[in-house]
Amino acid sequence: MKDKDTLLQTAGINTRLSHIGNSPFDFHGFVNPPVVHASTVLFPNARVMETHDQKYTYGTRGTPTTDALCEAMDALEGSAGTIIVPSGLAAVTVPFLAYLSAGDHALIVDSVYGPTRFFCDTMLKRLGIEVDYYDPLVGAGIEQLFKPNTRLVHTEAPGSNTFEMQDIPAISAAAHQHGCVVTMDNTWATPLYFKPLDHGVDVSIHAVTKYPAGHSDIVMGTVSANAAHWERLLDAHGQLGICGAPDDAYQVLRGLRTMGVRLDRHQESALEIARWLEGREEVARVLHPALPSFPSHEIWKRDFKGSSGIFSFVLAVDNPEKFKLKAHAFLDALRIFGLGYSWGGFESLALQVNLNDRRVTKVPTEGPVIRLQIGLEDVADIKADIEKGFAAVREA
Predict the structure, then answer these.
(1) With respect to CATH, is domain 259-395 assigned 3.90.1150.10?
(2) pLDDT at 121
(3) Partners of 350 in the beta sheet?
(4) What does the H/E/C string look like for 18-62?
(5) Torsion sign, CA atoms 214, 216, 217, 218
(6) Does a cis peptide bond (omega within 30 degrees of 0) precede residue 368?
(7) Does pTM top 0.85 for this prediction?
(8) So what's the architecture of 2-255 in CATH?
């Protein structure tokens, strides 16, 4: 097996995804690890029970099934350790609770995932933690925002819904000069297209609900830390008692096997749709970081290896009073696209973006912002569905 491990270190990504996180001969040769359900774990004697001198001690501390997913994520991230939690939001909030204390100050990117902002404005505030939001395009200029009590900088690239790219290496370097931990929500790119820990980030966060699971039927998150920050994360995970279920871990691990080929299709289709939308008179602009027209495209090109299937566009509407009317007309005319939250599954989804919570980020004013998750359907059918939406906008 060590020969196989050595081989996988230099193998292609689809080869690695097919083989990481499983050791068939640990389980009588079965290809996939078994789903181990556990709360109680027995000890062979009182001494081992007292010292916890065995791999598994209680169900909340992991099982062979959850460990298999953790090992797979560590292999993808290059991390010292990974924890599994029940949702993508928990994957953000657990490290916040791990690294922040009353009286601390945190810098949170203003293009952050909405529920993360809500947690910061409610729970963190109640716990006596000060939060400021910063422009996603600040780059090295974040140096001016640190306070003596700043302890954490949270990043998300590209930004939620509007897809601004952040200069992660520059922000991380500045944060480390001030002794801050840097966390990043990397759900959009997955470790296949961006590896945060290779760019200065300390803690990489994923809603594996999305592309790793890939089938719109699992809610789960992972948090992967470098060696300097792993023990504190692991301690907080145990203290909070927040753990992922083995059945869900099994499903995510199975989804990982095909994530590479699925992401290739998502990327290819989304870019074709995005370029097509750029030429449509119904569209004011397209918010996709892999497009050369996008303001922070050069950062994406420098740091990222690919793009996924979710982006937004601004519907061209002259009268602000008709933003909602036109957006609803577009959405209600769609048939292949579902109207739903989340993304990363096999099906296309659409929604109108609400940007009313932004504090410092400039938001589009030319019309309502529509977010699209481009699924695995045929591109011609997706375009035809969008055409139906544009026809409805013209009639509204």
Answers:
(1) yes
(2) 98
(3) 339, 372
(4) HHCCCCHHHHCCCCCCCCCCCCECCCCCHHHHHHCCCCCCEHHHC
(5) positive
(6) no
(7) yes
(8) 3-Layer(aba) Sandwich (3.40)
